[in-house]
Amino acid sequence: MKYERLIKVQSPSVQSSSMTTRQLFSVNFAITNYEEASDVIIDKAKKRESFGVSALAVHGLIESVRDKGFKNALKKLDMIVPDGQPVRWALNSFHKTRLKDRVAGPILTRYVLQKANQDGLGIYLYGSTQMTLDKIGLFMQKNYPNVKINGTHADRFREATPEEDLADIKKINESGTHILLVGRGCPRQEKWVSNHIGKINSPMLAIGAAFDFYAGNINHAPQWMQDLGLEWVYRFIQDPKRTWKRYLIHNSHFIYLFIMCKLRLHKVQF
């Protein structure tokens, strides 16, 4: 496969009729910002439309190159936003998109919660541990008092049986929630969202680390590190045993693909 197929233009978008997308390594990223993306999500929430969203950084992007099943799952999502400065830089480099900032999952979630708070919308939390979900509940009560928590569901840390899945869908839909936040870690959360488009009657946001950030389990990197694309270094320092392999393999693979595509030398079969 020639490099052009890795970075081709996809517009109008198959993800959203109102957003331009650009393809990077087989993923169609929405060329958007926090305000625009959160407005789309809130609009879908008010209409209670099934709508799949992912904030995809380098880790998820390279997983889509390495895992055909994950790549196909991402194709079903309605909006994939560029989480991470390296993804933004690559989109700007290949497509001249002039993106001024990334659209990080935790920050996008904050925008969504602020607007949900203004409109008194309901939120459902799916994933992580019950302790983390309880902490998020306290965080939301303090910062977004008008947002109703319609329900929570701790992760089983395995895939649900067909019977359990039907019960989960029924419980979520009957809660009347407007927005479902899914924090199962990449790529499990994106696959889950992809498999539930048309089944869950609300937007579903695969936002992973946002759960741990808002529960206080992990801290945000200093702004200067975020701006320089070094947030991964900060997270590595906090949890080296869990993250070293991800950053060593995926970051290196991303750099390799970027350079090869820039040099128009890379051919890879996805």
Characterization of the model:
The structure is a single chain. The protein is of the alpha/beta class and 270 residues long. The chain has 13 helices and 9 strands. Strand 2 (21-24) and strand 3 (27-30) form a beta hairpin.
Structural class: alpha/beta
Distance between the termini: 8 Å
In helices, the fraction of residues equals: 40-55%
The overall strand count is 9
Biggest sheet layout? 6 strands, parallel
Q: Overall pLDDT, averaged?
A: 88
Question: How much strand content do the residues show?
Answer: 15-25%
Helical element count?
A: 13
| Poorly predicted parts | 9-16
Question: What attributes does this structure have?
Answer:
270 residues, 15% strand, alpha/beta, 51% helix, 9 strands, 3-stranded antiparallel β-sheet, 6-stranded parallel β-sheet
Q: Strands, helices and their partners?
A:
Elements: H1 3-6, E1 9-10, E2 21-24, E3 27-30, H2 34-47, E4 51-56, H3 58-66, H4 68-75, E5 79-82, H5 85-95, H6 105-119, E6 122-127, H7 130-143, E7 148-153, H8 162-174, E8 179-183, H9 188-195, E9 203-206, H10 210-215, H11 223-227, H12 231-238, H13 240-262
Parallel strand pairs: 4-5, 4-9, 6-7, 6-8, 8-9
Antiparallel strand pairs: 1-2, 2-3
Helix pairs in contact: 2-6, 3-4, 3-13, 4-9, 12-13
